[in-house]
Amino acid sequence: MVKRFGISGPLWWAVLLAVVLAIHFFITFWYLTPNNPVKSKWWDRLYAYMDPLFTQNWQLFAPNPVSQHQDVWAKARVKDPATGQLRETDWKNITRPMIRDKQSQRISSEGRVLRQISVGARHFRGDDPKEKQKGEWILQRSVSTALGLTFSDSDIQQVKFRVVTNLFPRFQDRRKGDDETPLYFHESGWLEFLPVGPAAAKEWPE
C-alpha cells in the first residue's frame, strides 16, 4: 500500500476530499455574506467560481420571494433539401419539459442545463451590454443544441429565442391561473446555429 507522509492511500484521498470540501464551503459562505470591503475586492473571482454551478440565493423567503417564472422558447430556420428554401419552425418551449423531468428525477442532467439557461436568461434581460451579450451567447448555444436534437434530420441554418417571463399573481389575485397573468417577452434576432460539441450534446436532455 502506497503511503505519503505516513498516510495510507485511501486515507490520503479522504483527507484531500475533506480539504477540497472545506475550501468550497468557505468560498460559498464568503459568497453569501453581506457586502463588505473584502468581499467587494474579490467579488469577480468569487462570482466566477460560484456562477453558474453553485449560485445560491434566499428568494424562497420574505421579504423578496420568487415572484416570476421564466421559460425559454426557440425556433429555427430550416433549409428544405429539395428546394433550398428556408422555412421557419413553430416556437418550441425548451425549458418546460426539462423542468417537469427535473421535478420527477432530481439527480439528472436537466438540473445542470436548466441552471445554465437560467443564468443566460438573467444576463440577457439585464441592462449591461457585456452581460447581455454573454447571456445571448449562452442561450444561443443552449437553444441550438436543443433544436439540433429536436430537428436532427433537418438542415438548421439559424435560431432565435425568447425569454418569456410570467409574473406571479399578487396576493389579492392568488386564485388566478398562469394563463390569466401577463407574459413579457425579451426576444433575440436571428442567430447562427451554434450547438455545443458532440461530447457535451450526449449529456443534453432530449
Molecular structure report:
With 206 residues, this protein is α+β, with helices and mostly antiparallel strands. It folds into 2 domains: 3-50, no CATH class; 68-201, no CATH class. It has 7 helices and 8 strands. The strands form 2 sheets. Strands 3, 4, 5, 6, 7 and 8 form a 6-stranded antiparallel beta sheet that branches. The chain has a two-stranded antiparallel sheet with strand order 1-2. A hairpin with a 2-residue loop joins strand 1 (3-4) and strand 2 (7-8). Helix 1 packs across helix 3 and helix 4 runs antiparallel to helix 5. The longest helix is centred in the first third of the chain and has 24 residues, at 9-32. The protein is globular, with a radius of gyration of 21 Å. It starts with a strand and ends in a 5-residue tail after the last helix. The mean pLDDT is 79.
